[in-house]
Design goal:
single chain, alpha+beta, Nucleotide Exchange Factor Grpe, Chain A, domain 2, three-stranded antiparallel beta sheet, three-stranded mixed beta sheet, elongated
Length: 184
């Protein structure tokens, strides 16, 4: 049973490499071996393209996020300004009511209550960042004052304030209506 036949195990891949197709040193490699290098280069290009696209997308998302936050802040600021603008006529009426109270009524409870409401309203506006625009006796500033008339007096000086002006966080939301001196 034991044949003395010599069975050899042959590695066909190694044998193929050992054939005459192997280039001598200094010769160009056959096309079969350059194919993996070309595939590697193509895959690297794809990888770089994917990476660049990812970077662009990440930058676009960051810009979108920043823009949304800016829009939210702007909407909040505009909403606050709209609320304040709608409250100012009520505050003006309350201010006129408190300043025009007759001295004979000053001690009554309801007058003191209205005065307390006026003070509370003023503190609320102050907490919201609303400040009164300074006008009386100052030089006329068209960005902060609205001239509704002229009277004899020092030129370009605000002589009287007809309606108070207000600014919200440094920006004028309602200019002061004023009478300006005409310089005679």
């Amino acid at each position: 049973m034991s044949d003395s036949t010599d069975e050899r195990f042959v590695d066909k891949r190694a044998a193929a490499r050992m054939s005459d197709d192997v280039p001598a040193p200094g010769e160009a490699a056959p096309a079969a071996e350059s194919a993996p290098v070309d595939e590697l280069a193509a895959e690297r290009e794809k990888t770089e393209t994917y990476f660049k696209n990812w970077q662009r997308t990440a930058a676009d998302f960051a810009n979108f996020k920043r823009r949304v936050e800016q829009e939210r802040g702007e909407n909040a600021r505009l909403t606050n300004a709209a609320v304040v603008i709608n409250l100012l006529p009520v505050y003006d009426d309350l201010d006129r009511a408190v300043t025009s109270v007759d001295s004979t009524l000053a001690g009554l409870n309801w007058v003191q209550g209205v005065s307390a409401i006026h003070q509370k309203f003023g503190r609320l506006l102050d907490a919201m960042g609303v400040k009164e625009v300074e006008a009386e006796g100052l030089t006329f500033d068209p960005a902060r004052h609205e001239a509704v008339g002229q009277q004899p007096g020092e030129e370009n000086k605000v002589l009287h304030v007809l309606q108070k002006g207000y600014e919200l966080q440094g920006k004028v939301i309602r200019p002061a209506m004023v009478i300006v001196g005409e310089g005679s």
